[in-house]
């Protein structure tokens, strides 16, 4: 059975509800920098890190395209495949901007994911604690921080 | 909205008691065209109606009784009706509990025929 796990506990309940309602196979909640807050469905740390980096890069790229077009950043992006679809959505919370990367299969749909993504965003905005002062990330403790996050995400 | 889609939906929404009609992409659950009264959450109805239709189709295929031609869900506060058009589009209508279901069904079948 796939599990939903979170580095930041306040993200867990809205994410569990989203997964149950939308039928998403994989979901990643992260910051625009690619720092993962919670995940559902991933079994390997390397997959989480790759997906987070790629998702953040896609949003950064489309954001830059929007800037070049003198438009606001694109809020959501959906890429439909034959069997699976990928949905990427960005939204603001009191803790700053967040991204959701969702992979869904034939038992769900773009419409369902988009519908429950809106509820996920509202749930996270309501659950988010006030923004804390950003901590300085030092090269010396970066690896420890990363390992702690991955341990939380995979229950190790 | 294209004229053909508007005409297809107008036929349905003209019936007394209908609160809205939509054309929905069956696989995606996304709205193609809509004519809704205020208060009807179009994107939610579209996504959930498409999901429902998919499940019913799977159930009917499992039962070897063919594909659904018409779904009618009667709730305490209203009615939801779905007619699949041949090319994967769903005609969806939402109405009051006392609307003329037979007439709405007829208009939905006409709409499905006109858009395919």
Descriptive overview:
The complex is a heterodimer of chains A (156) and B (116). Chain A is of the alpha+beta class. Chain A is 44% helix and 24% strand. Chain A has 4 helices and 6 strands, in the order βαββαβββαα. Chain A has helices spanning 12-22, 45-68, 110-127, 139-154; strands at residues 4-6, 24-30, 36-40, 76-80, 85-93, 96-104. A 6-stranded antiparallel β-sheet of chain A has the order 1-3-2-6-5-4, with helices on both faces. In chain A, α1 (12-22) runs antiparallel to α3 (110-127). Chain A is globular and about 40 Å long. The mean pLDDT of chain A is 88. Chain B has 116 residues and is of the alpha+beta class. Helix content of chain B is 41%, strand content 28%. A 5-stranded antiparallel β-sheet of chain B has the order 2-1-5-4-3, sandwiched between helices. In chain B, α1 packs antiparallel against α3. The longest helix of chain B has 21 residues, at 42-62. Chain B is globular. Chain B starts with a helix and ends with a helix. The model of chain B has no long low-confidence stretch (mean pLDDT 93). The chains are: A alpha+beta (156), B alpha+beta (116). Chains A and B meet through α3 of A and α2 of B.
What is the total tally of β strands of chain B? 5
Which structural class is indicated by helix and strand composition of chain A?
A: alpha+beta
Number of continuous helical runs of chain A: 4
Separation of the first and last Cα atoms of chain B: 16 Å
The coarse silhouette of chain B is globular
Q: What amount of the residues of chain A lies in strands?
A: 15-25%
User: Assembly state here?
Assistant: heterodimer
Average pLDDT of chain A, rounded to a whole number, is 88
Strand element count of chain A: 6
Following the backbone from N to C, one meets helices and strands of chain B in this order, namely: HEEHEEEH
Q: Shape of chain A, please?
A: globular
**What's the rounded overall pLDDT mean of chain B?**
93
Segments of chain A where pLDDT lies below 50 for 5+ residues? none
Helix content of chain B: 40-55%
Number of helices of chain B: 3
Strand content of chain B: 25-35%
Give the uncertain stretches of chain B in residue-range form. Answer: none
Query: How does the major sheet of chain A shape up?
Result: 6 strands, antiparallel
* Physical arrangement of strands within the biggest beta sheet of chain A: 1-3-2-6-5-4
Radius of gyration of chain B (Å)? 13 Å
Radius of gyration of chain A in whole Å, from Cα? 15 Å
């Amino acid at each position: 059975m796939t599990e939903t796990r979170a580095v930041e506990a306040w993200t867990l309940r809205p994410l569990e509800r989203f997964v149950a309602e939308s039928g998403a196979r994989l979901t990643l909640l992260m910051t625009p920098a690619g720092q993962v807050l919670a995940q559902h469905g991933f079994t390997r740390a390397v997959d989480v890190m790759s997906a987070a980096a790629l998702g953040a890069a896609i949003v950064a790229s489309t954001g830059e395209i929007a800037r070049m077009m003198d438009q606001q950043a694109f809020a959501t992006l959906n890429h439909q495949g034959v069997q699976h679809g990928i949905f990427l959505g960005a939204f603001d919370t009191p803790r700053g901007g967040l991204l959701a990367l969702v992979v869904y299969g034939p038992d769900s749909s773009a419409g369902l994911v988009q519908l429950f993504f809106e509820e996920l965003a509202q749930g996270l905005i309501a659950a988010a604690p006030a923004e804390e002062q950003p901590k300085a990330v030092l090269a010396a403790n970066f690896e420890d921080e990363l390992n702690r996050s991955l341990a939380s995400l995979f229950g190790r | 909205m294209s004229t053909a889609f508007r005409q297809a939906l107008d036929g349905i929404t003209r019936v007394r008691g209908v609160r809205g009609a939509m054309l929905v992409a069956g696989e995606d659950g996304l709205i193609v065209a809509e004519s809704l009264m205020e208060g009807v959450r179009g994107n939610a109805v579209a996504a959930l109606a498409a999901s429902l239709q998919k499940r019913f189709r799977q159930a009917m295929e499992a039962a070897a009784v063919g594909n659904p031609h018409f779904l009618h869900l009667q709730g305490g506060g209203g009615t939801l009706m779905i007619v699949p058009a041949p090319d994967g589009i769903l005609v969806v209508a939402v109405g009051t509990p006392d609307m003329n279901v037979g007439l709405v069904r007829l208009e939905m079948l006409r709409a499905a025929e006109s858009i395919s």
